[in-house]
Every structure is written in structure tokens, then in C-alpha cells.
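Summary for the steering committee. The consortium agreed at its last meeting that each partner would contribute one worked example illustrating the joint modelling workflow. Our contribution is presented below. We chose a case with several input lines so that the handling of multiple components could be demonstrated. No manual editing was applied between input and output; the record is shown as generated.
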Amino acid sequence: MMMTAEAYEASLRKLNLKVYMFGQKVSNVVDHPIIRPSMNAVAKTYELAHRPEHEAIMTATSHLTGKKINRFTHIHQSTDDLVKKTRMGRLLGGATGCCFQRCVGMDSLNALSMTTFDIDAKYGTEYNKRFIRYLEYVQENDLTCDGAMTDPKGDRSLPPHKQKDPDLYLRVVEVKPDGIVVRGAKAHQTGAVNSHEVIVMPTISMREEDKDYAVSFALPSDAEGITYIMGRQSCDTRKLEMGTIDRGNPFFGGHEALVVFDDVFVPNDRIFMLKEFEFAGHLVERFASYHRQSYACKVGVGDVLIGASQTIAEYNGAEKAHHIKDKIVEMNHLNESLFCGSLACAATGHKEPSGTYYVNNLLANVFKQNVTRFPYELSRLAQDIAGGLMVTLPSEQDFNDPETGPVLKKYFQTRDGVLPENRARILRLIENITLGTAAVGYLTESMHGAGSPQAQRIMISRLANMEEKKKKAKALCGIKDNDQ
Amino acid sequence: MMMTAEAYEASLRKLNLKVYMFGQKVSNVVDHPIIRPSMNAVAKTYELAHRPEHEAIMTATSHLTGKKINRFTHIHQSTDDLVKKTRMGRLLGGATGCCFQRCVGMDSLNALSMTTFDIDAKYGTEYNKRFIRYLEYVQENDLTCDGAMTDPKGDRSLPPHKQKDPDLYLRVVEVKPDGIVVRGAKAHQTGAVNSHEVIVMPTISMREEDKDYAVSFALPSDAEGITYIMGRQSCDTRKLEMGTIDRGNPFFGGHEALVVFDDVFVPNDRIFMLKEFEFAGHLVERFASYHRQSYACKVGVGDVLIGASQTIAEYNGAEKAHHIKDKIVEMNHLNESLFCGSLACAATGHKEPSGTYYVNNLLANVFKQNVTRFPYELSRLAQDIAGGLMVTLPSEQDFNDPETGPVLKKYFQTRDGVLPENRARILRLIENITLGTAAVGYLTESMHGAGSPQAQRIMISRLANMEEKKKKAKALCGIKDNDQ
Amino acid sequence: MMMTAEAYEASLRKLNLKVYMFGQKVSNVVDHPIIRPSMNAVAKTYELAHRPEHEAIMTATSHLTGKKINRFTHIHQSTDDLVKKTRMGRLLGGATGCCFQRCVGMDSLNALSMTTFDIDAKYGTEYNKRFIRYLEYVQENDLTCDGAMTDPKGDRSLPPHKQKDPDLYLRVVEVKPDGIVVRGAKAHQTGAVNSHEVIVMPTISMREEDKDYAVSFALPSDAEGITYIMGRQSCDTRKLEMGTIDRGNPFFGGHEALVVFDDVFVPNDRIFMLKEFEFAGHLVERFASYHRQSYACKVGVGDVLIGASQTIAEYNGAEKAHHIKDKIVEMNHLNESLFCGSLACAATGHKEPSGTYYVNNLLANVFKQNVTRFPYELSRLAQDIAGGLMVTLPSEQDFNDPETGPVLKKYFQTRDGVLPENRARILRLIENITLGTAAVGYLTESMHGAGSPQAQRIMISRLANMEEKKKKAKALCGIKDNDQ
Amino acid sequence: MMMTAEAYEASLRKLNLKVYMFGQKVSNVVDHPIIRPSMNAVAKTYELAHRPEHEAIMTATSHLTGKKINRFTHIHQSTDDLVKKTRMGRLLGGATGCCFQRCVGMDSLNALSMTTFDIDAKYGTEYNKRFIRYLEYVQENDLTCDGAMTDPKGDRSLPPHKQKDPDLYLRVVEVKPDGIVVRGAKAHQTGAVNSHEVIVMPTISMREEDKDYAVSFALPSDAEGITYIMGRQSCDTRKLEMGTIDRGNPFFGGHEALVVFDDVFVPNDRIFMLKEFEFAGHLVERFASYHRQSYACKVGVGDVLIGASQTIAEYNGAEKAHHIKDKIVEMNHLNESLFCGSLACAATGHKEPSGTYYVNNLLANVFKQNVTRFPYELSRLAQDIAGGLMVTLPSEQDFNDPETGPVLKKYFQTRDGVLPENRARILRLIENITLGTAAVGYLTESMHGAGSPQAQRIMISRLANMEEKKKKAKALCGIKDNDQ
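What follows is the complete predicted structure of the assembly.
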């Protein structure tokens, strides 16, 4: 049942996506050189699931069917499942050096498994039953789902229904007997055009006035009326160049797209929330917490960056310098400190009424807050170790040119046995992660993905038990309970 | 079998300890006003074990006897045990606002449970059997053990046997048929004079030349020839003053002592290592890792400090200022980030050949490294929120004086309903934790306890799998395996 | 005309101050062991002014009389004067290792030289003429002035006139033909009981409703109706102990007091502002900026802390360890970064209409903001280098005791030639600066003196030219001027 | 005499440079779209010198001729000159948003003015006379000089003469009666192909064995035998695209090149050092200190980045959020803290025997050390404020496309009056500075230019007066002078 990487690629070719980039419609999405590396990264999630040494991490047993499934389609049944999710993120981050895009779907499915259950409990609806059927379909077919949450938001000081253009948050424009029609857009959609399905969720807590915006559903990614406009990344067009050195990470990458829903029809059995506005925030919070945990992937990218830094230090003959060794320790320290956060919110997770295991919400936010800081410091340290050549290195063509090639090979030799070309490769990889296409994922996405830093601070503020702490302090210094 | 706090105090009164402070022998150790708060803190570890709401955390089931025992005497049988140890540290740190001194014993016992097993495996000795008998005695009597590791070390650039004075590391001076005679000292012994037992371990890795220093054993704390010289703490003599305000934390505290072994006899059945020098480092590393995990207690003290900061902000009418709220978030964020570290090294622990569960060594070091940083920043933020009055507040006597008291109460009033005296109490608590007696535990001990920061960095350097990371980096940028 | 240190001490003996401490009236202020070290520190400002090698820094030429005067009584006549003020602060901080308390007077005089001039320019009053006469008196008699700004403030969310008790800000309670009567208090007054004069200023910007609080004047420190209640410092009572080791810095220290004005009469010629409420903020801002610059003194204390850290590293035989050397570099780096801030705000000062040179206001705030951060990190690094013994060292009495003394000297020896007693001295000095009496000045006063961190952030926010910066950004990316 | 921007461009067209990029010889250097923005940035140094409002900063009076000259060709005659140099850097950084490349020449000239004088003083040579003639030529013709210091270095653990290939440091291969022949390369040459002259200096301290490497000279940039191979920058090829939005900073940029000297002849009157190996370090240190001061330019780029961050916050309607305001304060605080460093090392400069004013060496290193840290944090904060759209924004072509353009304009509208296109412009500018071509200058060059961080730490270690600091500490705690 679990797809192979090859089957995944083949399945994408069957999709009929409407994708735009650089002002043009993309005719062959799978083979487009800027998109393909991101497809390769998703393919890795299929490939590793078939490797015996990664089986425990990459696969799980479906609680619906009892079959072995790819963990990305699994509903967490224990804290052990949550811890394995953390490990899977690190594994794949290290294997691809970039965002592999499949977490959002997993996190959406798990969040919906709880929210649909809780809506039903209140209203006697049947969202959870629909959802379970949908989940089984996803598991059976081993699908990649895009989890689409972020609306364009327009003027951020106004709620959805007060925006000048009512479509700045995705909304229900018509309710029909057999389904609904929706309009709007979802921004920053990671991996959108590599997905079989798109799962739409609201992006903020809502009040009754916004109830038309309180909608969640799933659709095939090539449903009628959906358009994708690709976002640019730093250094994106290096992927159009010949050669492999200057791309840094020639095989893997990521992408983001604006996904536009232009009066798209959603059949009833694909709808998981419809105007139950008081559950919008509920779903957002659950998805966000799961997705914050998912940033364990950056620990894997950090492994690659640390490995690259150590390698260039060795190539330069500088690896024994005390300050270099100390910087490598600091990089490891920061990277493992991150890992602790994702592990801790997983290991202290708990079972929700729906049966799904949920991460420790406070610690998931604490972890993600560190993700908005440490990768930047890791990048700074990597650039320190790499040396200035990382940004002054001539192009791969210059290395290959009969005129300039020998000159470069002469002047960029370091210690015996190191090929100048390999020195260039490792420098370009560090450039890729700290300034190039992968920096989009390693830095900016670490900052804003799963919520910008202030979103986590608000959650920390809400979740820290301040009354308990005040009580402890007052007790110790002799202030009586009812005293101020 | 588990002692009550009262029984614990009574048991201490029966000890005949030789303790010196301020140039004088202390006649009544238990009631000495500078020592007593530290006894109170240990007593809390007995008291809470009898509270039903803390039973799961504070007690465990002995793997030797199957009886319910205080967790401080338990050998960890699962990662769940390790996680509970972390929670117990936080609980007690929050309940006492200081160091409660009983972790060193627990960590020594667990380390010895492994090292004695491993020595026996190599040499066919019977250390583990002796140890198990000793452990059962400790569990049955619910004893507090001092874990004594740090030697004075003399000239740090020289190994034990090269020191001018051979006693600068504790050593075996004579081997008799029925036991050994040892001489030397152990410095910085937290809780030494509140302990029933002292467990001695070597402090560094050793070579054959140092084998007389490779010794581990346990003795009653009042064994013939042991002397305790108490260390001073910042603000220690405030405990001699009347009143309770200026002490900050009037009931709880900590203490450290230099423990001198002046040709002390150790019977054979109390010896757990004797000249097996190659296991000195083994024992040090195991104790250190467990003890690094134990710094979860500082998260509990952090809870108190955060609670105190929030309280003084409310007393001052400043709690709604955005910068104050943000500083409280940052304090919580740092404190929970610490918590994640201790949890993570516990949750990813594993079973050693001896059957004991051991923490994740790398993550324990990563956690402790953060402990050498974050409490300092938490203190800085607490002092920021507290305002300058924390260090310019007149004495409790001035508050009580008929002349100055009314003046102080007039001018130190803030918003309605806040007693100026309570404002003083909470400020003195923050002073206590950030500058006073508790700062010794919260700051300096966080820095140096369980190894100074550089010790952790060396471990991180050893334990990070750099070859794996280099391999990942090279694979991604296209450097062939055997290439440099 | 410039007093010697001896003459200064003699002059203090003639004062008739009403001082309370520990619930008792202090009969002999000058010789009280807790107060005397702070007197010694002020005396240093007199002593060094007579040393030829410090003449350029410590003295200036009065712009009123042309005579050589102590720089602490000088009105800055050039940016060179401002730079010398910075250097004087560092010099004295290094010479005393603590707060020498005389800056507040200098900063008050300079601020008043401008504010009185500007009030007169608006209202045709004669405050500046009065002030000049007063200044000449201070210069001729080489007086130490306390600059008293901070009111108790009560409920911080309310302005002065809305406080339940109208005295929570110092105010004019009666205007008489020959003067005024004032009531209220000033908190945190550094060096108050070592001063000949007290110069009172308002503490916040005010509106018309608060005009009774908009008052500035100078009085002899022993004027009828003024009472001083001394604040406590961490480890203050160590100064009452015999011996010199445990005090850390046995000769120098600081102090703070609450200064209470109980219907005190101020004659007209000592009044520098009376109800010109719109100049309250003007005076506060000028005093604050000068006083922020004054924190150059902490760079001098930093020099002492760095010197002590290097010394203990050498005593321990650890000074060649790479991590120790790197921490010393970091300490120097942070300390000199601070120095840059004070120098820069001085070197870019300008002449105000009154003729007085004023520091660069933005950079003075930027500097002080760093003062609220870097000394804490310097302290942390010093504690790292010092090792745990700093907080576990037995008392000086134990060193002198015939029983314990030899034991301590045996076990606290390090490398050849280092006296264990000297090791104790240097550790106690580091304890003094990072936890003890001097920590009050080096840490908490660095945080809150001359305004808490948020005060500087508000000023930075006001003074940064954001329109200019937006214009530059828009110009570069091609956004037209009038576009948003 | 001072050239206009137009004259500068015309003068470049007359040069006959041998430049390679992307494996091809560049036929028209001035108009090449990737190179031209860097030419524009240099041109700005000519343009602003003619603007009356910048005259005081941008121009100086030649101490040789008494004529008004561009400050970039001036030898500093006072600390005021040094302070103006700092201000000029900030001005131009703000006007271009990038590296304007002309400091290296100015810093080389000033360093040579001292080193040539000092060599002559020791050896009675005439280097200074030659240099003065050369300087006059540069001033009269208002030339841009590349200061070429960094050699490729090969195996960093070996000195020049021990490298396998002797050319890995530039060296004298032949001494002729009328000049010398040199071979080697200089890496990372900023602005190389926009320069009229190239001034070569050694890159490290040397011993006698390396004397053939101890050489300094100046040549026209198009001298026979010199080849330039251009380095790549992140996002460099966006400059080849149509439109202006996606380039971020469409008009200005920087470049670096490898400059190869293939047996180039240098006539005697252009030689400023020849085998006086003991002055190699002397020259390196002087150039480095001046050049470290020059990083004041990054404060100007910081102004742009802060302005852009404020602008996008306003566009998004988020500028009133407290956390955004606080982040803007922090950005300003860090940026002005940097400014303080450059100002301080200038204001405390001193006159050298040659008459040239030299910056405070310790503070210049302290400043540069902060430059290796703060711009990274400023970038992180800018990315925080910018939001995720910065890295997911579609291309300019998509904005212009009739199909996708209206969709993007609909969904990327924010508050009233903000053009979505302008939002894109400002986001692309932030991308440019934090990830794109300008990040090379703002981040990586801040790290490694004028010496990598460790180089500054070594200098701080050497220049901090530790003996003085130890003496202060010992004096305060009562350790006698001759005691350890």
C-alpha cells in the first residue's frame, strides 16, 4: 500500500495542476528544474519508508486498518508515536538538507482528528465520521496532503468580515444541497504543487460575524478552480543553470505557492467544519502545536550545516584551531538544545478525548520559539567557519573554463588531497543553507512557519501557570494566601 | 519504611558530627540558625513523599524489595523513572526555592549500580553484590547520602600523583585485611552535615600511576576522622538576625562544606572500587550525567523567581506594561527551555547492562550547559522587573521601629491593598535568589555543580557524531564518499 | 581651594545628619563601619585630584572663576570636557571597585546650568543667576552634592496629584515670601550621607495639575527636617566582622538611603525651579542623559573584575586553558564595548544655548542600555572563571583558627608560591562584585540607576530618526516619495 | 580636481581590464548588468563630494597640496578627520544600501603613509618619498584604489615559503634594476574592477624566510599581466532579469574578484616595501585597524534595513503592535551601539611619528568584533518584522502578467492606499540585504572583511592591559604587590 518514490512521481504526473511561475503557465510541473528538487524531497519520505533501517521511524500501524502505513498519514496513538515523529523530522531534514513538505498534511490530519470529534460532541454532527473515511482513503493511497491554513489577511488590524475585499480570508460563498462553493486564497503553501490533496483550515480564532470564514475541507489538488502561483526563493534560478556545484544542494529543495480558490466546489463528504466558528481557534491551535513540534526537521538541517562546517574547516586545515573547535561545539549545543524541545513536547504529550495523542502545548511553543532564534546563530557560526570564500567564489563555469579553470584550481588548493572543486561544493552547500534557496526554509520559515515568534509568546503567556508560581513565591517569603 | 520529616530531624540529632564554622566547633548542628534552613530543605524531600498528590513523583517501588521507597533512594528502572526524577526536581525546587541537597546521593547510587556491575564483569570482583546490600540498607532506612566527588585538586595542571602534597586528591594510604585507610578532602559538599551517609567517588579519569586515588566507598557521616568545615554564603549571617523579612526565604536554604578525611578507616563491605583506575572516569561520567539531569531543580527555583517577579510587578502596579509582560514571557520561555532539556535526556534514556536506566548522555550535557546560562538571564530579568528598591530597602528593624516604621510605610505604599511589608518580603525573596544565600545555588552552583561549563563542552564535543554529519553534508553537495 | 581627602572627612564630621539604620539612630556617621567604606570611596575623588598624574582628568578650570577645580564641580565647556568625564569615571571605578557617588551632584549641576537658563529665557526669571551663585559656592568649597531625583511614586499608574497620599512625590506645601516649605521623600539616594549638599529635582514630566511637584532646589544635607534611613545591601553586615578577607573589598563600598523631607524650608536663593511644570521633563531628561554617560564608572569596576578573574585563573593554574583565555577576551570585549558607548556620546556632544556642553542624547541612552546588560554577562563569566570555591570558601576565622586553619591552608593550596589566603582574598573580591555589597552597584544599579532599561528604550524610540531611515529605504527600492 | 560621477564612469571606460565571469571574458565591464550596480555605488562617492550639504564629510584639504580633495584620498590629519571618516561611511552605506568599495584604497593609503615612514626611519630608504609622490597623483586625479591584501593562503597551517606551490602568497619572482616582477593572487577583492589602481600589501606577519613575500606596491588596474575572475553572489543573476522589483536594490550593489598577478612588472617608483619582512605585520596591523573602523558603513546599511522594516510594518498595518515597536527599538539600539564603536576608536585616535592620525587600535578591534555579530541579529529582526511573504512572493513577471497580476494585486493588498507592488519592493529590499546580493556585504563581509572574528579577538587579547587590571584587583582586596 505504501507508495515507492517512483510511484509517487508517477502519481504526480497524472495530476492536472494549474501552476504559474515567472508570468507563465508551467506545462510540465514535475520536470520543471525549479520545482523538481522539491518533488525529490517529498519523494524521500516515500523512499525511506521502504528502508528496513528506518522502518520503525518512518512507518506506523494504522489504528483504522491495522496495516503498515507511512507515518506521515498516521494518527498518533501514543507518546512514543510523537517521539518518533520528532525523530522522523530530524532524519529527513538530514537526508534532504531542506524542507520535505509533508508535515503539514500529517499535522492537519491529526488536528482534524480531534477537532471534528469535538465539534460532533457538541453539535451531534458527523464530521468525524467523514474525516475517518477521508483518512482511510489517504492512508490506503499513501497520499501527500498540503495543509493550507494561512490566508492573505489584508489589513491585519481588521477581522475577516471587516476587510474591504471579503475574499482576503477564504470563505464560503454559497451553500448547496450537495456541497459548498468557496473563494479566497492560502499563502505560503509549502509543497503545494507536489501534493495530491489540499486540506483547508481557517487561520485565526473567529466570532459569529466571521462564521462564513469558519470552514475546513479537503480537495484533490487539481480540483476545478484551484490555481497555484509559485513564490520566488533566493537563488532560485541557479537551478536553471548547468552543472551541480553552484546550486549547493543540487538534488533537493523546497517551494512555496499562493493557492487561489476561485469559486471552487467542495462536496459534502469532504467538509470537516462549516460555520462552527467557535471551533476555528480550536483547530488553529491544534494544528499549530503539532506543526511547531514538526520543526524538528531543522535539527536535521542543522546536522547537515554542522557537518559542512566541520568539513570546510578540515579542507582549510583549520579544524584544530581552538576557536573553530569551540564554534563546532556551540553549533552542536544549539542544535541539540533544539532537539530537546521537540522531544520534550512529544514525550510529555497526552491523549485527547478523540483518542489522538496531542503534544505538550506549552513546550511545543517554547520549542518553536527557540527555532526562531537558534538556526540564525547556527548560520552565523557556519559563515564564520566557512570563511569569506563562500561569497566570493567564482562560478562553476569558471572552474570548467580552459582559461580560468587552471588558475582557480591553482589558487584555491589548500592542504594535500583536497580537490578545489570539493571545497567549492561544500562552500556552496553552506551558502545554500544560509543565504540561498534552503535559507528560505532554514531561516525565514523557521521564523514564520507554524506561526511567527509573537504567536508563540502569546501562547506561552497563556499557558504558563502564573497563579501557581505566585503562590509558591508568596508561600516561601511568608506572604499569607489572601494577602496581596 | 519511608521516614517522615520529623523522623528525619530526629535521626540527625543522633549523629555525632564534627562541624566547624566561623572558627568554632558547632555544638548543635541541627538547630544552628545558619544550618537549619538547609536541614528544612532536605526534610521537604521526606515530607512530600507522604503526600498523596505527590506520591507518583516522590516515591517508587524498589526493584530489590518491591517496597514503596522514597525516589531519592531508587535505582531507575525505566525512562518513566527518569522523567519522574526530572519532575521531582522541579517540584522540590519550587517548594523550597533552594537546593534540597538530596540528589547527589541518588545520583551516586545510580552511578555505582552501573560501575560496580561493570567492574565485576571485567575483574570478577564482588563490588556490585556489596553495593546492592548497601543500597538495600539505604532504602530500608530511607537515608540521605552525600555524594562526595570533588577533590581540592591543588595545581590543576598536574595529575593526582604529581601534586606536591599527595593528599590534594583523596587516596588510599593503607590497605588492611578488613578494610582501607583513606586521607584527603572533598570540597563544595552540598548538604554534607544533613546527611546520614557520605559516598565517596573519584573526581577525574585516572591512569595507573594514580591508582591509589581510584577509590569509592560509603561511610556513616559521623565516622571517626571525618571533619566538616562549613563554607560561607552571600548574606549567610542574615539568618542570625531576628525577624523573617530580610532573610528573603526564611525557612529554606542550602549549605556547602569542606569534608576532611583524616586517616579514616573504611571496612571492606563499604568499598565499591579499589584501584581499578580505568573505571574512575567511567564512574565520574555516569555520576556527572545523572547529576546534570538533576539540575531540573533549578526550573523549580525559576518558577519561584518568576512568581516573585510577577507578584512585585502587580504590587507596583506595573504588571500591565507591555515590556513587563514580555519579560515575564521571556522568563517562562527560558525556564521551560531548561525543563525541555532535562525531560529530553530522561525520555531518551536507555537500559545499561546492569539493568539501570541511564540518561541520554549527550542531551544531559546539553541541558546542563544551558543551566550555566539561563538562570543568570532569568536573574537579570527578575532584577529588571523588581526595580531598584530591592537593593535600597531599609532593614526589617527600621520597618518595626516606632520612629522610622511609619515613615517607611507611608513612602513605600503602592497601590491600594498592598502591604508595604509584603512588598518588602517579595523583594527580599528576589534578592535572596539573585544575590543572597539562594544565589549560591541558583547561579554559582548552576555554573559549577556537576561540572563547570567547559566540562560539558568537552563531553558535547566527544558525543556529537561528527562523522555522520560530515557524511550527510558531503552526500548532499555531491562529494564522493572517499573524497576529502 | 580643592579639598584633600582628609579635609573632606573632617568636613563631614561637622555635619549634623539625622541618620537611621537597623532601627536605630546612628550617632557617629563617619565612623560607622557600614557607612565608612562609602565615605572612603568619595574621599578618593578628592585624593586623586591632587595627584599630578591624574590632574588632567580629575581637575578642570572653572569657567566662572578661572581657578583649578575638582572636575566633579565643573560645568562642561567642550566635548573634551565630556570625554574627560568619561575617563574620570573609569579611573575612579577602577580605583575603588564600587560606586564613588559623586557623579549625581556633577550631573545635577550641569543639568541645572541648562534648565535654569532655558526657564529664564522663557519667563524672564532669575533662576540661572541664583544657580551660578550656588555653583560658585560649590566650586569654591569643593563640595559633594547628592542629586536627588527619584520619588517613591506610589501607584505607578497614577500621576503625582492623583496619588492617595499627596506626598508620594516631593512637593511644595507652602510658598512664603522668603522661601518655600517642601514635603516628600527621595528614594535610592546614593552617597546621601556622605554629601554636603542635596540638590532636589523632579522625577518625571508633568502637566499643570502637577505644578506643585515641579520644584528644584539645593539645601545643606543637614538642613532642619531632613532624615536619612539607610538601605540594606547584600552582605552589608560583613563590614561589621573582624578581619578583611571576607569583606572582599575591605576599604571601599557604597550606600543608598531614603531621604525624607518633613516640611523643610528652602530659602529663595536656593530655589531653581518653582512650578514651571513644563520644564520638569526638560530637567529630568538632561540630568538623565548626563547620568547615563556617567556609567563609564562601571567600565572601571569591570577592569577590576577582569583583573580579579585573570588573577584567580593564574592562582588556579588555569590561565593557559584556551576557554579561559577566550572568556577573558570576551570580558575585555564587552567592557571596552561599554567604554565605546560612553566615549561616543561624549565625543559627539554639542553646545547648548546656555553654553554648557551636552552629551549626544541618543548615544547616551544606547550606552546606558548596554550597561543594563553587559555587567551581568561579565559577572557570569567571572563566576565561571572563579570556580565554585567562591561560594563554598569557609570564613576568615576558620583560616585563622588553630584547628581548622592548617587544614584549610593544606587543602586550598594550588600552584607553588600562591598563598591560600590570597586565593581567598581574590575570590572574595569577585564575590563582592558579583553577589555582595558591590553587586548592588555593579549589577542592580547598572540596571536601574539613571533610569530602568525601558526608560532608555523609550528615549531611543523617540530619538531615532525613523522618517529619514524610511526615506532611504524607499529611495533604494524605487518607491516614490509620496507613495506609501 | 575632484571627479564627478560621470567623469568617473568615463574614466573607467578607458581602462583595458581583463575580466572573466561565468567562464567568459567580459567585453564591456562598465555596462555589464551584474557589475554595473557596483560601479554605481563607487560613483556615489564622487557624486556626494560635490553636494554642498555633504561637503564637510565628503571632502578634506590635502596636507600635501592644500587643495580640496575627496576624503577617500585623504591622509587623516586629526581625530576630527577620523570621526568624519566614520560619518562618511554611515552616510554612503545609507545612500547605497551596500558596499561602496572605496574604503580599502583610503585605508591602504593611510597605512602606507605610516609604514613607509617607519621603514625609512629604520633603513634610510626612500619609500615614503615615493609614496608621497604616488599619493599626490592619486589625490590630483581623484582615483579609486583597490587595497589588495588577502592571499589565497593554501594550507593555513603553513607559512608562505612552506606551501607546496610557492605562489599561494603573492611574491617577488625577480628583482631587476628598474623594478620587480611579481606573481600570485589576491582573493576577495571588493570593487576590484571599478578601480583605477590596485595597491598590493602582504597579508600576514613574516619572518626572514618569507622575505620574498614581503612586498607592497601600486599599479594601474589594467597593468599587463593582471587578470580578474569575478566571484558569484547570492541572487547575482537577478540583475540579468528585466524589471526592478525582484532585484531589491536595483541600482546599487557590490562585487568581489580574484585578482591574479601573472609575472607582472612593477617599476621602482611604485614599490613601497621590498623584503623588509619585519614590517609586513606592521603594515597589516595598520591597514586592518583603519579598515575595521571603516565598517561604520554597515551602520548606514543598518539604517536602510531599519527603515525598510518600519515601512513594511506600516504597510502591513502592524506598526503599532508593541512587539514590533520593541523590535524596531532593538534594531536601532544595536545599530547605534555599532556606531559608538566606530566613533570611539576615531575620537580617541592619536598622531603617529609620520604625522598621520591613527585610530585607537583596541577599540577598532572591539568595534569590528561587534560588526561580526550585530548585523546578523539586525537581519533576524528584520525578517521577523517582514513576515513570511518576503520569501514566498511571486516574481515581478507574475505581477505584470494579465492572468496572475490581478490575482496577486487582489490578494496582496493590505491597508488602504498601499500599492501591493510597493509592498513587494520593500520586501525584496529586505530580502536583498538579508539573503541576496547585499547580504554578501552586510553579513558575510561583516564577518570576514578586515579580518575574521578570531583575528580581532587575538588583537583584543594583546592590547588589553592585563597587568594594570590585575594590579587594581589585588590592591583592592589587600594582596601585596609582590605577592602572587
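The longest helix of chain C spans residues 322-347. Residues 365 and 456 of chain C are 5 Å apart (CA to CA).
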